[in-house]
Amino acid sequence: MADPIKLAYFMAVKEGASYLGGLLVTDTSGIPLDFRYTEPITPTRLQSILYGKSLEPHLKEEVIQKTLLKELKTPPDLFILSATELAGGWSGDAKYPVLAVQKSQESPLAKVGDAFRAGPRDLLIQLTEGAAPMRVMFAASVDAVAQEQAVVKLLEAGYHMDLTEPLERVTAALQSLVVKES
Amino acid sequence: MFGRVKDAVADAAETLRRAFAGLGVVEVVPEAFHPRGHGAAVLEAEPRAGLEPPATSFHEMRLLREAVEGRALQPFRAQLQAESGWAQWGVAAEVVRMSPLEAGKAARVAVPPLPRKAQVLGRVEPPPRPSVRRLWDPVVPPGVRRLDPALDDVTAEPGLGVILSLPVPIQGENIQRLPKGLWMRYSLQLVRGTGENVRNLEVLGLFHLPRKGVADLRHDPRQGRILVRLEPAALKVARVPFILARRKDDGVLVSCFVEDP
Hints:
The complex is a heterodimer.
Chain A: E1 7-15, E2 18-26, E3 32-38, H1 45-51, H2 55-71, E4 78-80, H3 83-87, E5 98-103, E6 115-119, E7 122-125, E8 134-138, H4 144-158, H5 165-181
Parallel strand pairs in A: 1-4, 4-5
Antiparallel strand pairs in A: 1-2, 2-3, 5-8, 6-7, 7-8
Chain B: H1 2-21, E1 44-46, E2 55-57, H2 62-70, H3 84-92, E3 156-158, H4 160-164, E4 168-171, H5 180-194, E5 201-210, E6 214-220, E7 225-230, E8 239-247, E9 253-257
């Protein structure tokens, strides 16, 4: 029997002047297997000036993401983040296929399980019958072969769960942590 | 060699000086010059180079204009003018005969040497230089301080309890896609588990839930899913099929775990 698929959902948020991130690992039903979060990082004024615009990407990719991934006991099969983060030029770790999933407004594909390549790093997959297909965007580090393998896993997971929902859960959990600490 | 040339030049200079020293100068009293007639200046065209257009200049003497007015009708008379002075100069001219050069008569003229250095007169004294005073007050170099821009390491905290406090949505399976035999088995187990008449049950969905650790369960009919709140124990147990149904007569939800054959 094959190992169950593990999906890692990463989200980093800025609350006030602090940054914190969370990583949720779920099974293909969306049930949590692990969740890690970082303590809020508040860069000093000097650090904000010295890092400039690179502060936020550096914090999210180099500091928060790598710290959280180091804590994972078993590597995830897919590393999923928000479409906004991916569109911002995510250049994080290439050990796992990095991708973003987003609900689309496209017309449904012929049948459940179908995939349509809309671009070199952009695919539409049909997860639910009659519903709009899900848009999958891969990071630049994911080659075509890895994309195909990832799509198979996404189709399997998407049959049981809403692929976009866990990110909302991570965001809600991080916000609750911020409220708790303040 | 150079000395001889120098002497020869000096001799020649002295000879010329003596030869012309004895010339008699006859002062000639010039006759008074009486102008007898006046003529008009000839008009001249001055050619000019370049792109400028040729311009004719007209010169008129004021005297002539007056004379013309007075003698406008008188005919011009030609009159021969002679200069008697030239003749007198010729008569009074004295022929100078130069005595031939003789050996030993040449006198050596010493040429005073040129001054080696030109004397500068009226020299302006330069202004006195300001005296320089040294004031040694060095700027103290500032101390360098290091502010490490590196961001502090962050630590990851386990937060499973936090995430488990949030409801987990579980999607229902499409019952229509299940094999008919399998669904018959599930229906039978549902009737046995709930004790309800199968005709009185409306199946809401088939879900896969942890056998233990489900603390709360809510049905989301709009999206055909259930929201469950799990306990940590739920993460360690296997997922089993779970059927959620509603009694048609009173609308009460009933459920049971079913087992795969």
